[in-house]
Amino acid sequence: MNNTYKSAGVDKEEGYRTVEKIKAAVEETHNKNVLKGIGSFGAFYEISGYKNPVLVSGTDGVGTKLKIAIDTGKFDTIGIDCFAMCANDIICHGAKPLFFLDYLACGKLDADVAAQIVMGIVEACKDNQCALIGGETAEMPGMYKPGDYDVAGFCVGIVEKEQIIDGSKIREGDRIIALPSSGFHSNGYSLVRKIFTDFHEEFDGKPLYEILLEPTKLYWRSIHQIMDESKINGIAHITGGGLIENVPRIIPDGLCAKIDTAKIRVPKIMQELEKRGGIRREEMFGTFNMGVGMVVVLDESHSKKVLDLTDDAYEIGEVVKNSAEKIILNF
Predict the structure, then answer these.
(1) Closest by alpha carbon to 282, among 324, 245, 238, 236?
(2) The pLDDT of residue 133
(3) Which residues form the PurM-like N-terminal domain (predicted)?
(4) Which residues in the chain come in under a pLDDT of 50?
């Protein structure tokens, strides 16, 4: 009997096909700071042009949103989600994304599917002027069923030490500005899939799965534009736990984010989920972003400039004194 790695379920040739499909596109994300391309044992990125640089890193995955992609065979946006969940976190501290690495695990590798996922990452990297400098594809029969995939990533950014945004400069009277989400982003999908069971049903003029797979919005361009024109005191990425759990992470002791939920523009799909599932409004706000992908906190004197500067930002609250709690949502 001639046992081989392929007979055990791992096809190295499919891995080589994957690399060939993505190599040219990945190299398009590289800049002069990338010292080595795909291959070898590590990737090299040179840092220059900073006085007192601080590296900021973040890692995350796509979660059970992947299940919808797997069930519908639509993988072209999942890579964007993977990048966005990592990069959107580090820009909360004013960091510019520098480079990204991805990890793709599966039961049986399909080069076409893997290439779709990585091409989504490439698209997101280009949008953020970030280099995709490495990654890993793991084919693990016995751990994953054929057709199953998991995707995670790791992003490193940079910021001058004196320009780090950490919420410590937030003061009473600061305004809370919402930057809209593109949908559920990549959070709460275990509940989403429990309520929406037919991904092919039509909703708001298109198949439901297209709405549910709308990729996580990338915020670097918007945040960068705001930072160029005004001073930001705090930024919160609204992910799992919604506004209720994420905004308090940047609010200093003795202060509280007072948010008027009546001002929040809740997407139709979230309203439909709430209605179909009989979900309490408090549970919705504690699970989903409810249409707010990013929160920016700044001095009242800067708020009008920011609202005029951005097309879709809008005010949802203010910072008040309160030693008992760090967020109040008026329902």
Answers:
(1) 245
(2) 95
(3) 54-159
(4) none
Closest CA to 303 of 246, 215, 204, 226: 226
- Give the chain's domain count: 2
For 126, the token pair is: 């280009």
Here the CATH number for the domain that contains residue 62 is 3.30.1330.10
The reported pLDDT for the residue numbered 8 is: 77
What is d(CA 139, CA 142) in angstroms, rounded to the nearest whole number? 10
Give the residue carrying structure tokens 């040219």.
Answer: 24
Calpha distance 211→322 (Å, rounded): 39
Same domain, 74 and 104: yes
Distance CA 125, CA 29 (A): 7
Q: What is the pLDDT of residue 39?
A: 58
pTM: 0.95
Q: What's the pLDDT score for residue 40? A: 73
User: Does 121 reside within a domain?
Assistant: yes
- Separation of alpha carbons 145 and 198, rounded Å: 22
Q: Using DSSP bridges, classify how beta strands 255-260 and 327-330 pair: parallel, antiparallel or unpaired.
A: parallel
Of 234, 225, 219, 231, which is closest to residue 319 (Cα–Cα)?
234
**Element at 203 (helix H, strand E):** strand 202-203
| Residue that finishes a domain, picked among 118, 135, 160 | 160
Enter the DSSP assignment of 172. Answer: T
CA angle 12, 17, 18 (to 5 degrees): 95
Q: How far apart are CA 104 and CA 81, in angstroms?
A: 13
Question: Any idea which residue has 């024109």 for tokens?
Answer: 229
For residue 147, give the 3-state DSSP assignment. coil
At 202, list the tokens. Answer: 């039509």
pLDDT number for residue 1: 64
Query: 308 CB contacts (<8 Å, ≥6 apart)?
Result: none
Nearest alpha carbon to residue 234 among 318, 136, 328, 322:
318
Domain that holds residue 148: 5-160
Amino acid identity at 242: G
